[in-house]
Amino acid sequence: MIRTENLHKSFGDNHVLKGVSAEFHAGKPNLIIGSSGAGKTVLLKLLIGLFRPSEGAVFYGDTNLFSLDDKEIRAIRMKVGMLFQGNALFDSMTVGENIRFPMDMFTRLSLKDKNRRVDECLEMVNMEGINDRYPSEVSGGMQKRVGIARAMVLEPKYLFCDEPNSGLDPQTSILIDELICDLTNRNNITTVINTHDMNSVMGIGDNILLLKNGKVAWTGDKSQVLESDNKVLEDFIFASPFLRRLREDALKQRQGG
């Protein structure tokens, strides 16, 4: 589990995060949502340790990330997988080489063992046998799966996903959500997902954190979204007329029951 306590972050006079306290649970997809400028990306970078907080703490288990020295932080980062918004695959490398890259950087495994792990990760994302293709030779959805395979290659305890469905069609987005959810549950990973995708919220939102103006505006799960009377959540989630109608129908059914 990862948790934050009274997390603040300022850049000069710009106070981006204002006392964020939250918990991100193992074995569940933990979603961070909110409008542009709410502080989602800054929070994600603080959780990873790319930024240091102006005040407050980030705990991995019982360990305060920012009380550690550089060597100890590196040891925690070895347990972290990252899925980037734009996939961040190297065009000049094959799919297999892209997935193998973290092992080349951080392990002393033999090439045979590395390649065996690459095959395992490709099987994990249902993409066996494409090791020798280049990213440009596969679809956007397949590139996203390659990114997931690379994020999983070091068997992380923590997985961070920045807008994993960005640029994908709705059907592929659902498949990516289901894949991330399955890997999270199966491996008991603490997964944190930054997203604007309301399908993700309603599909895999087992633990949801809504930010507004750098503060926690609401927490809950997907089953609580449609019946919540939180005004900030309502304005954000139900900006879509379709979702607003869904909520109205759910409220009518509850009142009728």
How would you characterize this protein structure?
One of its GO terms (molecular function) is ATP binding. Pfam families: ABC_tran. This is Phospholipid/cholesterol/gamma-HCH transport system ATP-binding protein. Keywords: ATP-binding, Nucleotide-binding, Transport. InterPro entries: AAA+_ATPase, ABC_transporter-like_ATP-bd, ABC_transporter-like_CS, P-loop_NTPase. With about 260 residues, the chain is an alpha/beta fold. It has a single domain, classed as Rossmann fold (3-Layer(aba) Sandwich). Helices cover about 40% and strands about 25% of the residues. The protein has ten helices and ten strands. The strands form two sheets. A six-stranded mixed β-sheet has the order 6-7-8-3-9-10. A hairpin with a 2-residue loop joins strand 1 and strand 2.
Helix fraction bin:
40-55%
Task: Spell out the helices and strands N to C.
Answer: EEEHEEHEHHHEHEHEEHHH
Strand order of the largest sheet: 6-7-8-3-9-10
What is the level-2 CATH architecture name?
3-Layer(aba) Sandwich
pLDDT < 50 stretches? none
Helical/strand content category:
alpha/beta
- The tally of strands reads 10
Q: What's the assembly state of these chains?
A: single chain
Tell me, what's the shape? globular
CATH topology tier name: Rossmann fold
Q: What's the CATH H-level superfamily name?
A: P-loop containing nucleotide triphosphate hydrolases
The number of distinct helices, counting runs of at least 4 residues, comes to: 10
Q: How far do the termini sit from each other?
A: 38 Å
What is the class in the CATH system?
Answer: Alpha Beta
User: Beta-strand level of the residues, as a percent range?
Assistant: 15-25%
Mean pLDDT score: 91
Whole-number radius of gyration?
19 Å
Largest sheet: 6 strands, mixed
